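>> received
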Amino acid sequence: MSTTPPTGPRPRLPSPLQEVEDDRFARHGVSLTLKRDDLIHPDLPGNKYRKLALNLDAAVTAGHSTLLTFGGAYSNHLRATAAAGRLLGMDTIGVVRGDELATRPLNPSLTRCVADGMRLRFIDRSTYRRKTEPEVLAALVHDTGADDAYVIPEGGSNSLAVQGCTALGEELRGRTHTAAVACGTGGTLAGMAAGLAPDQRALGIPVLKGGFLGPEIQALQQRTFGAPTDNWHLDERFHFGGYARTPPQLTAFADDFEDRHGLPVERVYVAKLLYALTALSEEGCFPPGTQVTAVITAAEPAAPAAQSSTSR
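>> returned
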């Protein structure tokens, strides 16, 4: 990836691989490896660096001074965009799905966004669903007073993001049979699958319910590469009721995984991915001898240097 990265620590690429000894896999002849994308950059961990880097380069090259993007109240993408704005000296605006009063006090992710200088704009869910319609998007941009903003879509998933994520697949060539990733908007899976070797497969675990993600990933690959690839599939059984839903069963699994392996497990994406892979191994979905790699795309939000409960 050729880009001008944010100032500060250089990205750690390729991200390291960590072998995990886990009897829930070993007794089925399956080996589990973690692709530690959460260690790429302290402020832009996981797939966020890969998805944002080319977008940030485009914004800087075009002379934009403001980044505007979208996400839910627990969005890792909003948090990463806010950090990127701080590192680059750019203003950032986060359009947040949902009612502002219902979000108070701000959760750790949004608190981190505000501490990094992001201005939050809450909109109702009906309008949020229409955010990509030209007239709705134009009105949102105008209402924020940032008519010259560089707009990054929800989750950062556009063609530049997908191109950035092809490097993830390329880093895994010859290192695994199945590369698995948790999916929000599908951009990481779309790029990773395109970067894998012909004999490798990609598996996506959606963290939202609804069954809409397959066509979205195909469309992303069509726009980016001219055609979708045929080396990926989704297993949509592990959303646990929807985005950011962490019922006791999932929390207990994540706590146990942390105790077994000494690895902090981010709850919105990573916990669902690891739970899914463990369940699939127990179901015998991976033939003996399979190497499975779980891409760790997110880290828990760090405590902000200055707490704030209001958006600027």
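>> The first helix runs from residue 23 to 26.
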